[in-house]
Amino acid sequence: MGRNPERDRIQIEQTRARLIEAGQKSILEMGLDRVKVRDIVGRAGVGVGTFYFHFGNLEQFLQEAIQGSIEEARSRVRHIRGLRDGSVLEDPAARIRGSFEAFFEYIDEHRTLALILLRERGGGGRFGQLIRDEFRLFIDDLAEDLERVAELGLIVPGVPPLLASE
Q1: Mean pLDDT computed over 53-67
Q2: Mean of pLDDT values over 123-129
Q3: Distance CA 68, CA 106 (A)
């Protein structure tokens, strides 16, 4: 029987997702600076070679886990907010409310990640700056959108969008 590329692709994606989930749980328990590959693979139930098949090293894994997760949240919020595509908004206030709901739904679905990021954001560890940079992108997106909403007269004038976004 021959190889099934689609089945292989799905299995690779599932294993990668299992590694990321295991890594997030390990990071939550131990912190970014103390987690080791053996902790992640042990929790995921895979071998070390499988980890290195998916990620070049621990640093790459941690960066991808952090950046990918924050980008997923940003993408969900931008999609619902509907301000990025330049479309005419039927109900901009509802879109903004929806974006907050999407953000908090994401947090609820990814509680472990949210706790990691909040705890590590203020830290001086090796990923503290990466997390702050990723949050800055999220805050800048929101500030830009709040400026556009202010132009529509939907928020009180004089509220600095960047301050409100923070």
Answers
A1: 88
A2: 70
A3: 13
Q: Which amino acid makes up residue 35?
A: V
Q: Which long-range contacts (CB under 8 A, 24 or more apart) does 111-119 make?
A: 112/21, 112/24, 112/25, 112/28, 113/24, 113/65, 113/69, 115/28, 116/24, 116/27, 116/28, 116/32, 117/66, 117/69, 117/70, 119/31
pTM for this one? 0.62
Distance (Å) of CA 105 to CA 77, 117, 131: 10, 16, 20
Residue type, 67: Q
Compute CA distances 153 → 46, 94, 103, 158, whole Å.
54, 14, 23, 11
CB neighbour class for 20 (10 Å; exposed up to 12, middle 13-18, buried from 19): buried
Quote the CA–CA distance of 139 and 56 in Å, as a whole number.
30
**Dihedral pair phi/psi, residue 142, rounded to 5°:** -65, -40
| Residue 115: predicted pLDDT | 76
Q: Residue 88 pLDDT more than 50?
A: no
Confidence grade of residue 81 (pLDDT, cut at 50, 70, 90):
low
pLDDT exceeds cutoff 90 at 112: no
